[in-house]
Every structure is written in structure tokens, then in C-alpha cells.
């Protein structure tokens, strides 16, 4: 329970003489007249609970205020600010006693456990109520103690949002909880109360008890199924998603699930294996002019190559064909194929540079011991920043031919409706491309694959499969729900392999390989063996029987 005293505001009055005002203000003479520039608005002394209010948007938004509280967590180095909390602020359970103080533009030294007074403006950046700090004064150690509130949110999503909002910025603790989505590349895992019995959430699940969990000052690597207890920190919010941030002064207990991806079964020569794999921004250590590309250090680039190569070799079994997304250039794919783990496949690379602002492209690796390249080309279009790559292949032994179209559809931009329209146009363009390829070579089957940023039941997928030339042929056990990606703690399918209807009778297996999503990102600079996770997407593997 939060125990609070009555909350009030201080009425400040200012009695000054004109000479003082002349000295304190900026003055200008305009056409012989003295013009006084207005003084900055005085900071109103208020309590934190009054700033927070009982709604999602603070009523004092934009006001210049002064407030006092006890520093509970200092994340200035990692999050550009610190949290403070006013003990016993009021008796209203709908108003929070804590607040974030943004110091990104004006850092200040603070001590956890000391009372401070902060002057600044009230902001609401990405739904987090905060003070944009102008000044801070230290009032010494707080003589009392602040106890973390044990959270017990309702399952209903709307009710849970209101529940969490009332504790935004405060010290809170969790009951024993289970990881339902592993630590992502931002350092955030997602947990549910262990008592809920929920092991995983899917995109259609709207359970309000889901909560992000992170340690911004360090890195908390958690995998799906891990159990955490003794968790305490501050409750924050980013774009409507609530998260508990563990300060460096606190620790937690982790019971590892021991989950590991299964090693791949050796692929048979009696099958043709085709995979799609989003490589999650595989950039080299060269800063390319005209591109907004990431530039990792040489060591991080080498580690990224080794991690992805190990994933392809150990968990996919070196497929004959791998359509890839988010590779920077053909030289990057050549560096990847030269990794010791991939040498047995003698992969050769195909990639055509596109206009993507970051320089990320789609590409393809093929086993040159089993296949040869007939031709390749990119198919630009106004709707594509990463044009589809058409690769025509032929088997060396029986001369079976296959055409592969590698795609990476529109990524989310913050405007779902506009994104959907772009993906529909892209889907229509690819379907027309398939029709063209089949008209030119009716006996050559076509496979379209990639990260389509679209769900299996979405309108873009319906457009791709309209007419029945391409089909979804996922081979799942009865009742099995699958995924290739996790977004804000919910699993979903966005990576696909669509096969020519003529190939459907030859499909031995077509399903995601869960080698990444369930395993925690080890963090920047981690060694390749710190986690099996090599990307934020799971690859999809297709096995076709050979004629």
C-alpha cells in the first residue's frame, strides 16, 4: 500500500521595486522607449503526485515547477536521467509518488538515497511523465526508508494500463515471474507472474500482466522460460509499454530454464533445402559514403559473422539455398561464406545493391557443390527500397531448375495504415513478377521468401497468394502455434516461404526453426558463444523431395 500525506502547493508571491526589475531583466531602447523583456516564468513549488495527476497525460504538462524527492535510481549514463520519489505524497492511489528527471541536456551529480530539489518543465516524452531538469540541489541523505510496492496487476489490458500508470516512476517489486520473451537487442525481456501459468504470449493475446524487464546500467540476458525472483526497481513507460528497470544498486535471482536450440539433423541429398534468414543488420566495419550505415568495430564485425555462421551450420545444417535480408553488401556475404563453419557448403553469394538509406539489401547464398547460378537480377520499383532479388538456379546432378525471389517488405514506420498500403503494393508487384516468371518458364517452379513484415493472415499475404500460384504450406503439428519474431513480448510470424503450387506435393517440411527468438541477446560486444541468438528473427526452413 502507498501511504501518503496530504498534498498541497505553495503560493509564491513576488514583491519587487522597479529598480530591481530593471537590473534583473533584459532592456532594450526602441524608438526612444524602454522595453522590458519578460522574466522567465517562476517555478511553482509542487509535489510529485500533483505533477503526475491521475490520468495518462499530466495536467501540468509544460509548466515550470520545482519538486523534491528521494533519488531512487541514477540512469544518467544509460537513459539520460534519474528517478526520484516523494515519500507519503498523498492518499490517492491513482497518482504516482515518483517521477523521471531528464538530464540529457544538463547532467547533474546526484546520490541515490539523498533528497533533492529539481526545477524544470513537465514533459511527457513517449508517454513517460518527466521533469526536463534546469537545476538540482542536494538536500542530504533521507532519514527514512522507501519500500518497493509489490505489483499485482489485473489481467485485463485496459485495467492493467491504469494500474501501472498509478505507479509510473516509483520503486516497485515483482512476485516470482517467468520470462515469456527473451532479452532483445534493446536489452529488454518480458515477464509474466509465475502464478499466471503463462509460458508464452502470441500477438492475439492481450494479457495486461506482461511487463518489460531490463537493467539499463548493465545488461540482463534472459531466455524464454527463465524464472526471476527478488526483482525490484523503478517502473517506467515507453510508448505505452511498461517496464521495470533494475538499478545497479539492486540484484535479482535467476533460475535458468536450460533451454537450448536443437542441433540440426544432417540434411539428406535426397532433398533440396531452402531457407530464409533475416540477419539483423549485418554491417561491415567500413563507413560507406552516402549511406546511414552502422559501422561496428572490426572485432564486433568478426564476432557477428562468427555468430551467424555458427547458427547456419549448427542449427540449420547448411541449407542448399539461403535467402537473406539485412546484409549490407555482397562483400559482407562473401565474408560470411568464408567463415570456417560454412566452408563445407562452398557457398557463393548473390546481392544487388539497392537504394535503402541504411544500405541494407536482400541477398542469397547457394551451395556451389550442388547448384549453379543461371542468372540473377534485382527488380526495382517505386514502392521498394530493398528491391526483390530474382535468382535462377539449377542442380548440377539432375539439372532440376528453381527460381527464388528474395524479399524484404516495408518495415514499420509508426504509421501502420500507410505501411500496410505499401506492403500490399509490394505484394502485388511480387505476384505479378511470379506470373511473369512462370509465363517465361512454365516448368520452372518459383519460391518467394523473406521477411515480409506481414502476418500469415494479413492482407499483403492474401494478395501474394491470390490466384493460387503461390501457397502457404506450413507443416505444423495439430494445435502447434509458431512464430519467427517477438515484438514487445508477443510472438508472431513475419518471415515466410511461399511455394509454387506445383511444388506443394514435394514439401517434406516447411516451418520456422526456433534458434534465436527464445534466447537472450548477449548484448553489445559479447563473445559469439555467449548466447545461441544470432538474430532477432528465427529462420524458416523448407525441405523439398527431389524428383
Provide an overview of this structure.
By secondary structure, the protein is of the alpha+beta class. It folds into 3 domains: 18-141, OB fold (Dihydrolipoamide Acetyltransferase, E2P); 149-255, OB fold (Dihydrolipoamide Acetyltransferase, E2P) (Beta Barrel); 271-545, Endonuclease/exonuclease/phosphatase (Deoxyribonuclease I, Chain A, 4-Layer Sandwich), CATH 3.60.10. Helix content is 15%, strand content 33%. It has 8 helices and 31 strands. It has helices spanning 18-24, 48-52, 76-79, 157-165, 298-316, 330-337, 416-440, 459-465; strands spanning 27-30, 33-36, 44-45, 64-75, 81-85, 98-102, 114-125, 128-141, 149-150, 171-173, 177-181, 189-193, 211-214, 227-229, 232-238, 241-245, 253-255, 271-282, 321-327, 347-351, 361-367, 371-378, 389-395, 401-408, 446-451, 470-472, 485-487, 490-492, 495-500, 507-512, 540-545. The strands form 6 sheets. It has a 9-stranded mixed beta sheet. A hairpin with a 2-residue loop joins strand 27 and strand 28. Helix 7 runs parallel beside helix 8. It is elongated and about 80 Å long. The termini are far apart. The model is unreliable at 1-32 (pLDDT under 50).
